[in-house]
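New to this. Look over this protein:
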Amino acid sequence: MSDDAVLTLDIQDGLLFCGLQGSDIKVFDLETFQLIRVLRGHTDDILSLTSCGAFILSGSVDGTVRVWNKNLMCCGMFPVSPGHGIPTSPPRFRFGYNKQIHYIG
């Protein structure tokens, strides 16, 4: 993998997402065990990953939560208030089945 420690893991749809010390998220195919993508966007250690439908949410020591589109492997982000882990403006993620998810910290 690399010399960076794995700090968090998530598995979804045959993919293993590894949040690393040092800001990267590595994505492995669980059938072939091959690295298929490195997601970059955070600037510090990745402490949390969670799957939500077509999205992966990652939280980092850099004070941001990023929302990655699992199919496109791209992301958006929102900052959190220092020391609180609470978004500075409440984001709303709307999914195709008309449910909202609110990040509450």
Residues 84-105 have pLDDT under 50 and may be disordered. Residues 6-102 form a domain with the Thrombin, subunit H fold (CATH 2.40.10.480).
